[in-house]
Amino acid sequence: MKTKEHSDRKTELVQRATELVARQGYDSFSYADLVTPGLTKAAIHYHFPAKEDLGLAVLDVIGASQQTLTQACVEQFGDAALIPLMEHMASRPWEDKICPLSSMQAEFNVLPAVMQARLKALSQREVATVTELLRGHAKHHGKHLSVPAEEGARLLLCAMKGSLLYGRTDGTPWTPKVTKRMLEWLFE
Q1: Which of 20, 77, 85, 116 meets the CB 3.0–4.6 Å disulfide criterion with 29?
Q2: CATH of the domain at 132
Q3: Is residue 21 in a domain?
Q4: Containing domain of residue 138, as a range?
């Protein structure tokens, strides 16, 4: 039987690994980066025998976080959920980090096949979610998309995630302005 301490330790490891992915990428961190006083590499291997196991847990956390945030916005704002969701994403304290999903996407070719499959599914779900939110936004505001909804979702996601990279590089918050401008361009 697994104890609460076991579960807490595992959760802590996944959270720390997610931070490292957002800060420096999946391929650039090792279990040595997770070692702390009282937590050895052997203990980390106990919870996650291979880095791939930890990577899958990170992807699961990213997916669950996306789903929870989207669901909360839809429940609160209905068809008007797109703007609050984008504002929340843009307002996160990214500092020297980028979206952990984007970080994994950037390293897609070096990830193990099982992680690639999970990442591909998460990426498709993200596009599908934003596609539906764009349709809801159009309906709510009585506007028409100037491009097909899925194409608009891809453009919006690329602009947002690219703005996080540029913002990290020059230290300015590009994302709110970029998101606002993209939404203006996407609707007639």
Answers
A1: 20
A2: 1.10.357.10
A3: no
A4: 51-186
Question: What does the alpha-carbon distance between residue 16 and residue 11 come to, in Å, rounded to a whole number?
Answer: 9
> What secondary structure letter does DSSP report for 169?
H
3-state secondary structure 4-73: HHHHHHHHHHHHHHHHHHHHHCCCCCCHHHHCECCECHHHHHHHCCCHHHHHHHHHHHHHHHHHHHHHHH
pTM over 0.70: yes
At 20, list the tokens: 């490292």
- Give the pLDDT confidence of 119-157 residue by residue, as tens digits: 999 999 999 999 999 999 999 999 999 999 999 999 999
**Burial of 134 (C-beta count, 10 Å sphere; 0-12/13-18/19+):** buried
Q: Which of 80, 85, 79 is nearest to 66 (CA)?
A: 85
| 123 in any annotated domain | yes
The DSSP H or E segment spanning 93 is: none
Number of structural domains the chain divides into: 1
